[in-house]
Amino acid sequence: MSPRPKNIRKVNHTPPASGFRPIYPRGKKTEVISLHFEEYEAIRLCDYEMMTQQEAAESMEISRPTFSRIYSQARQKIAESLVRGLTLTIEGGSAYTADKWFYCPECDLIFNNIRPGIETQEIRCPICRNPEIETYIENTNNIEKRMIMTKIAIPTRGNQVDNHFGHCEFYTILTIGQENQILSSETIPSPQGCGCKSNIAGQLEEMGVSVMLAGNMGAGALNVLTSHHIQVIRGCSGPIMEVAYAYLKGELKDSGEGCHHHEGEDGHVCHHHA
To answer: 176, exposed or middle or buried, with CB in 10 Å at 0-12, 13-18, 19+?
Structure first.
């Protein structure tokens, strides 16, 4: 059974700094613990704003049990940082901020930028890298969470891009930071049967995936993913991390080529190979 997809958590205020480090004799290096944005928000709401856990959960638009788990993880990380004298960074996770929405007129993308200190840094479109970005000033309460550009999916076999989307070994999900760095990686199993007739597109959309880097893909699968607001870049091959970095550098373009093996009577295109 596939793991339950995570909801993207609402962060009402971005942190003022990207982390904290202990004061040591000059030159000493420490391990690093990453406090996720939603974990920071949980601490801010309960321990700074003095909200109850129920109030904080409602503010973040998540359930009370989910909030309790996030809050507990955050306190554990902070305690470990203090007791062991470790550097604490605030990054990553599965979150969006209530403000700091932007619009790219080049590719018509509305995206969210949760990076601390954003006022002093250049904002570029996460897809086309266009620097001519406009502040999105419409009612952001109506923006759907699926529009947040945070995750990339790659059909995977071993550590390579699987050439057949519907029959890959698993999907690699990469969470991308606002400076185009890969913050985290996770995998979800590939559903049995043909990918375009499974619920994988809906599951990826629920996880916040907005881009898929794929090898071959038939028209049926492409249409299903597109209907779930996932941009597909076909023609990818090689080690998944090399492909991901090439995408982040703006070096990949959709090949426009699909896989046409075993086209069914209903126009459904699969990727089966004996």
So the answer is: buried
